[in-house]
Amino acid sequence: MSSCSLLKCIVDKCCLVGDFLSCFNAESINIPFVFIYTDNEPPVFTTPNNVPSASVDAGMANAAIVWSPTLSATDVVDGTIPSASITCVNGAGAAVASGDQYPVGITTVTCTARDAALNEQTTQFTITVIGACFVPFFPFIFISK
0.85 exceeded by the pTM? Predict the structure, then answer.
């Protein structure tokens, strides 16, 4: 047997099969070995990079905004994160989604993706809705003397 031991392989995390088996004479002993992987990596977002600004007609307070591309996240262990595990809220904490109505002004959207190991990643982007300028008509009255 070499200078490795089962304890050293666990403590030093030399958990590659070749490293572990090299610690022992694999031909003469039968050792059950369980690999334990802890997922500490948060998901990675594909954040909308083409969120258009929108203008609304006078008197309108909201505009429907579609995010492009669709928000998604992937994880090194879980793969594609299901949309049910991605939540988005506005600055007031209300849930928002692509295609929703957004008020005139700038709305910051914060989205969080959670993988099966409960690792979280957040991303933010802004949506701008520009209100139409309403210029009231005031007739001019000229008084001459």
Answer: no
